[in-house]
UniProtKB/TrEMBL annotation:
GO cellular component: cytosol
The protein's name: Acetyl-coenzyme A synthetase
Source species: Novosphingobium aureum
Binding site for Mg(2+): V535, H537, V540
Lineage of source species: Bacteria, Pseudomonadati, Pseudomonadota, Alphaproteobacteria, Sphingomonadales
GO biological process terms on file: acetyl-CoA biosynthetic process from acetate
Domain Acetyl-coenzyme A synthetase N-terminal, chain residue ranges per copy: 23-80
Catalysed reactions, as listed in the record: acetate + ATP + CoA = acetyl-CoA + AMP + diphosphate
Mod. after translation: Acetylated. Deacetylation by the SIR2-homolog deacetylase activates the enzyme.
Requisite cofactors: Mg(2+)
Length: 647
């Protein structure tokens, strides 16, 4: 198979912060002289007390520990706000686009944001919140969510954001897990014209959280919500009584910044803990280089703040870099499938960063919605969250970007704090579907199941050989689980849980979770490959493949397929798809079962939960595991009801 290669456009290479030669030189130094490299990179941050030690890390059980810039002190909110005031206080920090295009947008300057953060920090302080306390944030995509995060960081409180859309149960579980006594929320959220009863969810959750004594409620839709006397405070009334002066707390580099629970694609979510100094350097550096970001550019990351992408690339990265970040409350399909691109035109967005799941959903609606907009302002497109299959990549590149914008397919995890493997727009020739090359300081390696290194081209388990500043430091409340989950499978390495292929050019191709590899008659296959083949068929919008028990082959292939709008999902199509996959990959990949599915079970961040589909494939509906992070639990019932019986 000949892979398409898209060289860096000449005009891009000319002006880029990092071109190919510079990438090679910087990368080489970052791994041969990490201390020197990171000492220099850390200068992008304003330290209160400079650090003397750069890196003290070991992945081995005997002296296990990860710490960066250990004796330095800083405040990340001051880095995101205060230090910009003198030079760009009147620049726009946040542009907020509401759910409905007929409602007014908001533009917030650095000066205004700084003031809002100080007042809100003082409000939390007046309720007894102090350094080290955990603050649960359950807010929609509104600027106050960023205010809340930065206010926590300012006073040294640890924020834990829970997707505004998770159930009361999921919320309660997270409040209890990190033992927080304060919850920040809104009366309601808005998504695609629908109201989400946030305050009511909080009230229900708090029946199981006796430790919570304060709830601060933002009036967002203006709905009438009951307020508990002594416990609940109206956001704006509370803030109005506070002073706009709030000195940033001096934080040690290794003091905790936030807890964030993983998506739960593979099991019970883990409370990932990130600390201050290393994360600040990492979020700022990756944001600048991955997007070739210069202040003044309008930058839009369409991720929710309830996801790590929203932490590093809606709030911390762009604001530390003095950027203008767009926050969008709504969904890509409301009022119609042009919405994303209309927003791009409205604000002249130059950099757009989104998830394959949204792109596939939009692709399904056809090109006209895209073509109805200009998109001339776009310069870089980003992708995150899942492998982007070549079909969706091409659509993104050719239809959305009109062949003009490099796509940065960024591989990373909640655990990694920021982008780990990615092309750089001015440095890396693109291969559709490949996350390509490691970020500075990242040493990816492929190991076989026995832990033996695979050199050159090959496929194996993706591990990272050395620490990077943005690495998570522990699982909240369970340091042993941290070590066991990530460092015990392959001794001396950070294990990502993902499978990966490296080609002759040293490009990395994420093949999916190791758990998702299936073994058909002795042939090991990544489910992503079969899914990509299915999605490449013009009638298919989305596909998820899992293994199922098979008497002869050991494992058979069970495919869940969502068709494009207006396609008849019938026996003819089933036969056509089977033939198609045989032709695309080979007879070994022939699906044993194809189930047409109006929707697939996904996490709120849009990842397909294959562990649930595996259970359906196995005809075992009794133990579906943790389903608290599902975006729409009813999807599962539908799949169970309509499960075809294999011939
Ligand atoms: P849990 O760890 O609880 O199962 P999760 O892994 O879904 O949840 P995240 O940290 O949000 O939680 O997701 C990280 C995973 O997403 C990666 O391990 C990888 O499988 C996938 N991923 C992210 N970006 C990409 C990408 N660009 N290409 C391929 N896979 C990606
Ligand atoms: Mg994970």
């Amino acid at each position: 198979m000949v892979e398409a290669l898209y060289p860096v456009p000449v005009e891009w290479a000319k002006d880029a912060l990092v071109d190919e030669a510079r990438y090679n030189e910087m990368y080489a130094r970052s791994v041969s002289d990490p201390d020197g490299f990171w000492r220099d990179q850390a200068q992008r941050i304003d330290w209160i007390k400079p650090f003397s030690v750069v890196k003290q890390t070991s992945y081995h059980e005997a002296d296990f520990g990860i710490s960066w810039f250990t004796d330095g002190t800083l405040n990340i909110a001051a880095n995101a706000l205060d230090r910009h005031l003198a030079t760009r206080g009147d620049d726009i920090a946040i542009i907020w686009e509401p759910d409905s295009p007929s409602d007014p947008e908001r533009r917030i300057t650095y000066r205004q944001l700084h003031e809002d953060v100080c007042r809100f920090a003082n409000l939390m302080k007046s309720r007894g919140v102090k350094k080290g306390d955990r603050v649960t944030i359950y807010l929609p995509m509104v600027p106050e969510a960023a205010v809340a995060m930065l206010a926590c960081a300012r006073i040294g409180a640890i924020h834990s954001i829970v997707f505004a859309g998770f159930s009361p149960d999921a919320l309660a579980g997270r409040i209890v897990d990190c033992d927080s006594s304060i919850v920040l929320t809104a009366d309601q959220g808005l998504r695609g014209g629908k109201k989400v009863p946030l305050k009511a969810n909080v009230d229900e959750a708090l029946e199981d959280c006796p430790g919570v004594d304060t709830v601060i409620v933002l009036a967002h839709t203006g709905a009438d919500v009951p307020m508990a006397e002594g416990r609940d405070i109206d956001w704006r009334t509370g803030v109005a009584q506070q002073s706009a002066d709030c000195a940033p707390e001096e934080m040690n580099a290794e003091d905790p910044l936030f807890i964030l629970y993983t998506s739960g694609s593979t099991g019970k979510p883990k409370g990932v803990l990130h600390t201050t100094g290393g994360y600040a350097v990492w979020a700022s550096m990756t944001h600048e280089y991955v997007f070739d970001y210069r202040p003044g550019q309008i930058y839009w990351c369409a991720a929710d703040i309830g996801w790590v992408t929203g932490h590093s690339y809606v709030v911390y990265g762009p604001l530390m870099n003095g950027g203008t970040t767009v926050m969008f409350e709504g969904v890509p399909s409301f009022p119609d499938a042009s919405r994303f691109w209309q927003i791009v035109d409205k604000y002249q967005v130059e950099i757009f960063y989104g998830a394959p799941t949204a792109l596939r959903a939009l692709m399904r609606e056809g090109d006209d919605y895209v073509k109805a907009t200009s998109r001339k302002s776009l310069k870089v497109l980003g992708s995150v969250g899942e492998p982007i299959n070549p079909e969706a990549w091409s659509w993104y590149y050719n239809v959305v970007g009109e062949g003009r914008c490099p796509i940065v397919d960024t591989w990373w995890q909640t655990e990694t704090g920021g982008v780990m493997i990615t092309p750089l727009p001015g440095a890396t020739a693109l291969k559709p579907g490949s996350a390509s090359k490691p970020m500075f300081g990242v040493r990816p390696m492929l190991l076989d199941n026995d832990g033996k290194e695979i050199t050159g081209a090959g496929e194996g388990c993706l591990v990272i050989a050395d620490s990077w500043p943005g690495q998570m430091r522990t699982v909240w409340g369970d340091h042993e689980r941290f070590f066991q989950t990530y460092f015990s499978t392959f001794k001396g390495y950070y294990f990502t849980g993902d499978g990966c292929r490296r080609d002759e050019d040293g490009y990395y191709w994420i093949t999916g979770r190791i758990d998702d590899v299936i073994n058909v008659s002795g042939h090991r296959m990544g489910t992503a490959e079969i899914e990509s083949a299915l999605v490449a068929h013009h009638k298919v919008a989305e596909a998820a493949v899992v293994g199922m028990p098979h008497e002869i082959k050991g494992q058979g292939i069970y495919a869940f397929v969502t068709t494009n709008a207006g396609v008849e999902a019938d026996e003819d199509l089933r036969r056509e798809l089977i033939k198609w996959v045989r032709h695309e990959i080979g007879p070994i990949a022939t699906p044993d079962v194809i189930q047409f599915a109006p929707g697939l079970p996904k996490t709120r961040s849009g990842k397909i939960m294959r562990r649930i589909l595996r259970k359906i494939g196995e005809n075992d509906f009794s133990s579906l595991g943790d389903t608290s992070t599902l975006a729409d639990p009813s999807v599962v019932d539908n799949l169970i009801e309509n499960r075809p019986q294999p011939a």
